[in-house]
Amino acid sequence: MLDAGRTQETLLEVNNIEVIYNHVILVLKGVSLSVPKGGVTALLGGNGAGKTTTLKAISNLLHSERGEVTKGSILYRGERVQDLGPSDLVKKGVIQVMEGRHCFEHLTVEDNLLTGAYTRTDGKGAIAADLDMVYTYFPRLKERRKSQAGYTSGGEQQMTAIGRALMSRPETILLDEPSMGLAPQLVEQIFEIVKSVNENEGVTFLLAEQNTNVALRYAHYGYILESGRIVMDGPAAALRENPDVKEFYLGMADEGRKSFRDVRSYRRRKRWLS
Ligand SMILES: Nc1ncnc2c1ncn2[C@@H]1O[C@H](COP(=O)(O)OP(=O)(O)OP(=O)(O)O)[C@@H](O)[C@H]1O
Ligand SMILES: [Mg+2]
């Protein structure tokens, strides 16, 4: 049986990729994952696990970082995309929202959103309609639309970055660490919006998150990345109930909260690697 929100059609497929920075630093050591159309897929893991590197490998943004995919393949709708440029991928319907919510600080919120429509050729009317659609999801951005983006709050900048991605009418959004630096209530609000964009607009998401707890409540399926390797994957509901995930990523165990000392013995005791 399929999970809610997922179909069998696979949009994005990452097959056993290896990524090396500066010709020597091996960061991804054979990562595979697949993203079904219409789903929200989470890529989870702690600091430096390789989440951002994976997303950048997919959208061909590694070159500016002296990074390179040295093995494996990346397919979108069955077509090899790793030799394309980032803007070719946008034309195919895949857009990345970068970690740290990059906005054009000197532009207004509305002009930031409009820059997201630069590859479109379907005319002003369609773009204006989508601007309205973005404001429906993010009423706060409508209030702030004339403000210079650099002076808006972190949450508003994250909303602007996501709204800007929506303006390209994407099929798939790669969303890097949407919770970063935001208060819990705001994180929840952003994930609620992701959920409704997924359900109402049919946009597929691959989201990278350190915040396992919130990500597994909103995603359909999750992959856990550790030191450049996928160590576990499964439907989000199953991962949430998995004792290892509970203990190491959700900070709880059957007996209640674990102390830091217990968690430190984690490497030795990790059952899924043995
Ligand atoms: N440009 C680079 N050159 C060399 N090493 C890099 C570069 N970018 C990242 N790394 C290294 O690659 C590893 C993975 O980093 P990455 O940013 O992909 O992790 P992440 O899972 O996104 O972490 P975080 O949750 O902190 O954002 C880290 O060890 C990092 O130091
Ligand atoms: Mg990252």
Automatic annotation (TrEMBL):
It comes from the Bacteria. GO terms for molecular function: ATP binding; ATP hydrolysis activity; branched-chain amino acid transmembrane transporter activity. InterPro entries: AAA+_ATPase, ABC_transporter-like_ATP-bd, BCAA_Transport_ATP-bd_LivF, P-loop_NTPase. Keywords: Amino-acid transport, ATP-binding, Nucleotide-binding, Transport. Residues 12-252 form the ABC transporter domain. It holds the Pfam family ABC_tran. SUPFAM superfamilies: P-loop containing nucleoside triphosphate hydrolases. One of its GO terms (biological process) is L-amino acid transport. Belongs to the ABC transporter superfamily. This is Amino acid/amide ABC transporter ATP-binding protein 2 (HAAT family). It comes from Rhodovulum bhavnagarense.
